[in-house]
């Protein structure tokens, strides 16, 4: 069996003094699609935040894409995040930029320089999520579901090893849901959580 992309063993997570999760055991392998179910406030988002270095693992063993999460230095977090596609719960789109500019910003920030390659890549991911005619719009001109599609496009721009999605299905209606899930699973070569 291949090495796990994410391996958590007896992990404990705290926010300030409060223990939000204890005894977390998880392995995620290439090609797997995993989703977390739990009540509001049960720690789902906190767990995801540990995967991209936003929240510390306080106990146990935690590894993601070869990085030891417990000993990960702040200066190495950007290297880890370049291997992840993240669909944030609150979208985090730049409100003063068009959809195209939001996506271009990510590509340029991760080292893309060729203008035509940037344009082609943005066109490809916008088409993938069914938003190819929305590149000129500002985020506030889009519905919540459309904004989420743009965030998914942003998450897969750099062909990440893993896509982490927080409340991915909340703003979707049933018809496009299966199409978008299929595009996420098909576009990400490694895993989706």
Automatic annotation (TrEMBL):
UniProtKB keywords: ATP-binding, Cell cycle, Cell division, Nucleotide-binding
UniProt source species: Bacteroides reticulotermitis JCM 10512
SUPFAM superfamilies (alphabetical): P-loop containing nucleoside triphosphate hydrolases (SSF52540)
Pfam families (alphabetical): ABC_tran (PF00005)
Descriptive protein name: Cell division transporter
The ABC transporter domain, residue ranges: 6-192
Gene Ontology molecular function, alphabetical: ATP binding; ATP hydrolysis activity; transmembrane transporter activity
CC per GO annotation: plasma membrane
Source superkingdom: Bacteria
Gene Ontology biological process terms from the UniProt entry: cell division
């Amino acid at each position: 069996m291949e090495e796990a992309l994410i391996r958590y063993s007896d992990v404990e997570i705290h926010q300030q003094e409060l223990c939000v999760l204890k005894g977390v055991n998880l392995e995620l392998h290439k090609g797997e699609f995993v989703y977390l179910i739990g009540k509001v406030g049960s720690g789902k988002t906190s767990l995801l935040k540990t995967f991209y270095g936003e929240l510390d693992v306080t106990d146990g063993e935690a590894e993601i894409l070869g990085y030891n999460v417990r000993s990960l230095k702040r200066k190495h977090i950007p290297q880890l995040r370049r291997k992840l596609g993240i669909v944030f719960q609150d979208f985090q789109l730049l409100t003063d930029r068009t959809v195209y500019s939001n996506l271009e910003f990510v590509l340029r920030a991760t080292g893309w320089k060729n203008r035509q390659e940037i344009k082609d890549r943005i066109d490809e991911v916008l088409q993938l999520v069914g938003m190819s005619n929305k590149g000129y719009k500002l985020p506030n001109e889009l519905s919540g579901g459309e904004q989420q599609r743009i965030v998914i496009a942003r998450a897969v721009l750099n062909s990440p090893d893993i896509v982490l999605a927080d409340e991915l299905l909340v703003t979707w209606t049933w018809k496009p849901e299966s199409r978008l899930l299929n595009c996420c699973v098909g576009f990400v070569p490694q895993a989706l959580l």
